[in-house]
Amino acid sequence: FQDIISGIFILVDKSLHVNDIIEIDGKVGKVFEIKLRTSRAVTIDDRVMIIPNHKFMTQSLYNWTQNGNKTTESVDVNVAYGTDVKKVREILITIAKNHPLVLKNQTPDVQFVDFAESSLKFKLLFTISDSFMRNKVKSDLRFSIDSAFKENNIKIPFPQRDIHLFNTKNEG
Predict the structure, then answer these.
(1) Phi then psi for 24, rounded to 5 degrees?
(2) What pairs with residue 127 in β-bridges?
(3) Which position among 46, 56, 143, 157 has the lowest Cβ density within 10 Å, counted as fewest Cβ atoms?
(4) What is the secondary structure of 94-156 as a DSSP string?
(5) 3-state secondary structure of 9
(6) pLDDT at 3
(7) pLDDT value for 171
(8) What is the DSSP code string of 38-58?
(9) Taking the chain (172 residues) in consecutive chunks of 10 residues, what is each chunk's mean pLDDT?
């Protein structure tokens, strides 16, 4: 009964539409059917989620497309201390601009996020028109970043620790 009432609310107030990209219970899917009791969405890995409609009323729901299909996404990148930060910025922006799914009318941006313990932290920001493709675009960009960094001798660091061992002799 709760699902049917929720389904009526969804259909009447149009808070959810077919083709909306939603995130609920940590899963992302594109809605393809809304009925009185349940709604159905296909996930990024091509599985069908059957969602009882009351979940839309009782849980937090992220509607990625509520205010349009464009979304700003990001990829975090760390580089070694001593790296030319202007070169990092230039490479990241060029890579984003060259990706076919990154919108050309929205210039990508790079933020210098922090001086971390083992690295300099950057965030590449870019806009896409199909948020359902976000994981593919991010993956493509990471492959390109890795390749460009290797070509330009830019190191992606990993945490390192020095361990000092002391040899003590027991005299007795």
Answers:
(1) -145, 140
(2) 72
(3) 46
(4) HHHHHSTTB-TTS--EEEEEEE-SSSEEEEEEEEES-GGGHHHHHHHHHHHHHHHHHHTT---
(5) helix
(6) 76
(7) 59
(8) EEEEEETTS-EEEEETHHHHH
(9) 79 86 90 93 91 88 79 95 97 98 96 94 95 92 98 89 76 57
